[in-house]
Amino acid sequence: MTETHVKVEVKAKCSAKKLFSVMTGGASKLSKYAPKTVQNVQVLPGDSEIRVGSVFVWDYILDGSAVMAKEELTAVDHKNIRLTVTPTQRDGNHNCLVKWSFNEKANEDVPDPTYINKWVEDFIKELDTNLLKEAE
């Protein structure tokens, strides 16, 4: 079994602070902000704090099908965080750049990483759109 490192970069219009906050401490609310791509996210234990041992239970839509995934955080490295949301100098309509990377195990049950890139892009764009609506 080989591991594939997936990297995705997406420009977003909402503030970096708001997007990062929802992706981390507000993870259980992701289905509210991205209902087309995420049906439900639970962070266990139920206090939503992200730390070593936290388990994310994701129900999401992938290629039109409902998928459930469970992921346990085995390390938290604040120096080398893999999700970064960086404020940018206003470049047209974009206020931040989202960089998300992760290792994906390639086997017969895992979709091609290229498709996962598309899902991450769609998810971030949907999240961004709905966070902007909330600010109105």
Structural summary, described in words:
By secondary structure, this protein is an alpha+beta fold. It has one domain (2-135): Alpha-D-Glucose-1,6-Bisphosphate, Chain A, domain 4 (2-Layer Sandwich), CATH 3.30.530. It is 26% helix and 41% strand. The chain is built from three helices and six strands, in the order E-H-H-E-E-E-E-E-H. The strands form two sheets. The protein has a three-stranded antiparallel beta sheet, covered by helices on one side. A three-stranded antiparallel beta sheet has the order 2-3-4. Strand 5 (83-91) and strand 6 form a beta hairpin.
Number of strands: 6
Computed structural class: alpha+beta
CATH class type? Alpha Beta
Number of helices: 3
**Percent of residues in helical segments?**
25-40%
> How does CATH name the architecture?
2-Layer Sandwich
> CATH topology, which one?
Alpha-D-Glucose-1,6-Bisphosphate, Chain A, domain 4
Quote the beta fraction: 35-45%
Number of domains: 1
Choose one word for the global shape: globular
Instruction: Give the biggest sheet.
Output: 3 strands, antiparallel
Write down the overall mean pLDDT: 77
- From the N-terminal CA to the C-terminal CA, the straight-line distance is 47 Å
CATH H-level homologous superfamily name: START domain
Low-confidence stretches: none
User: Whole-number radius of gyration?
Assistant: 15 Å
Identify the strand order in the major beta sheet. Answer: 1-6-5
Order of helices and strands: EHHEEEEEH
Organism: Papaver atlanticum
Protein name: Bet v I/Major latex protein domain-containing protein
Domain Bet v I/Major latex protein: 1-134
